[in-house]
Structure to design on (172 residues):
């Protein structure tokens, strides 16, 4: 069909939502909201990818350890390196894991940047284990998104209430 101007009728585009929009997650976009758009495949891909990256990181650390043995720097330096990488990896794992359930403090994040870089294997393992349960960060984002939607609905309900009552409140 066409209107009187001769242009074909096209369905009207839906009006943009004025409510809160979900925040996209790395590798998942907004598929975490309804678990659609290849969500399961993405979770599998993230799990496999992070585990493969962690395995590659361990190989690099193994090569560094062998380099120290070849250089014959001594047992104390080798022990220090092993302890340093183990502690940094454990701290990075914990920091990354906590970041999935609450927003990290930007100042603390900046101060831990070096430690997190050294303990990158721990961060990769945290990402792997979390992707076995959900999209990493999904729980935090879902809680924030649902709270924002509830607040928006409350405000919309207040605005669309009885206007006569609103006038009475303003006069008082």
């Amino acid at each position: 069909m066409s209107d009187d101007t001769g242009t074909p009728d096209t369905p009207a585009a839906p009006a943009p939502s004025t409510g809160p929009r979900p925040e996209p997650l790395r590798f998942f976009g907004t598929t975490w909201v309804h678990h659609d758009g290849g969500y399961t495949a993405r979770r599998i891909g993230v799990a496999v990818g992070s585990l493969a990256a962690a395995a590659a990181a361990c190989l690099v650390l193994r090569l560094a350890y062998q380099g120290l043995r070849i250089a014959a720097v001594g047992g104390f330096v080798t022990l220090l390196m092993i302890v340093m990488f183990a502690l940094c990896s454990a701290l990075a794992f914990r920091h990354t894991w906590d970041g999935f359930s609450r927003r990290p403090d930007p100042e603390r994040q900046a101060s831990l940047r070096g430690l997190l870089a050294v303990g990158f294997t721990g961060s990769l393992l945290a990402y792997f284990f979390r992707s076995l349960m959900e999209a990493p960060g999904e729980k935090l984002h879902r809680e924030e998104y649902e709270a924002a939607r509830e607040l928006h609905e409350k405000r919309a309900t207040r605005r669309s209430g009885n206007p006569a009552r609103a006038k009475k409140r303003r006069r008082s």
Summary: Residues 1-15 have pLDDT under 50 and may be disordered.
